[in-house]
Amino acid sequence: MNHFLRRQGWVIGLFALLVALFILTKLIQPGYGSGDFGSLARAVLPYAFAVAAQTVVVIAGGIDLSVAAMMALTSVTAASMMAGASEEYALFVVPFVLAMGFVLGALNGLLIVVTRVPDIVVTLAMLFVLQGAALLVLGAPGGGAAEWLKALISGTVPIPGLPDAVDAWLPKALLVLIFCLCVIWIPLRRSRLGLSIYAIGSSELAAFRSGVPVKRTRILAYALSGLFAAFGGLALTMSTGIGAPIPGPYLLASVAAVVLGGVALGGGKGGLLGPIIAVFVLRLVRTDLTLLAIDPNVTAIIEGLIMVAVVMFGAFITMRGRQQ
Predict the structure, then answer these.
(1) d(CA 34, CA 233)
(2) Which of helix, strand or coil describes residue 142?
(3) Residue 306 contacts residue 285 (beta carbons within 8 Å)
């Protein structure tokens, strides 16, 4: 138990902070209920997938600045393909868009490995490329989404044997998030590829000397990042019913949540649970500021300051770790 608490202390602390924020939210607005929690879960969904995309890359010792643009491109691609199409056609669109994200992510990794240009430069360039491609697909917000996809994250899931009051606090969006992340992350974390991702993040040289295929692992890490970003793009289309070609505020939010979630910016340390909890913390802070009737412009400033402070703190911890 002591070993578990030492390893998961940061995550437990984050969860305690989240519970405290929920209590504060209830005090601010006593009427805050299951419907509001469902809205929070739907709002968190694209952010959570963006964070998952960033987490895989950061653990591998890199960073991906193209996450938000990739989400925009996959979102408008899905929305444009489903506009006016049959409900069954979405069964083809979903795997196509996910495969598209995987390939684009792999392209990021391939460019980094082949050119040996720093990842921050390559992914920054790809940000502009993907953003331009998104505008070519849809010049303005539009398109459509299959009704069954939108229903997939709307409402709650009834569970036999549980009271209705409990079911009301189990939003579909949260269950979809948990299912998608668990199906990919849990097998990955226990696989040889997952161990290799952690290894190259800890020390690329040591990993290479231990027989880890560094180049292939880095490419696959970015490919998985692209896959999660595609999930995020689909989540955007599912939640709004349309595609938006302009990237949202997902890049800085993903980096901030990764750092707040206990993942070292230098790589090789951390997991996915902490960053996901951190996303809920950051979005709940925004909710509380809105409930307190804080000016939206001031709210944006406060959110930005929190994110910048978290990222700077993470960079400071990383630099201290390298010096030691």
Answers:
(1) 25
(2) strand
(3) yes
Nearest to 40 by CA among 232, 174, 166, 233: 174
Q: Does residue 92 have a pLDDT over 70?
A: yes
For the entire predicted model, the pTM comes to 0.90
63 contacts 201 by C-beta, under 8 angstroms: no
CATH number at residue 55: 1.10.3470
- Give the orientation angle of helix 214-240 with respect to helix 172-190, to 10 degrees: 170
**3 in any annotated domain:** no
Q: Write out pLDDT tens, residues 224-256.
A: 999 999 999 999 999 888 888 888 888 888 888
Domain count of the chain? Answer: 1
Q: Which two tokens stand for residue 61?
A: 């010792």
Is 1 inside any structural domain?
no
Query: Are the C-beta atoms of residues 18 and 284 closer than 8 Å to each other?
Result: yes
2 inside domain:
no
Q: Which domain holds residue 68?
A: 9-323
The mean predicted confidence, pLDDT, of the chain is: 86
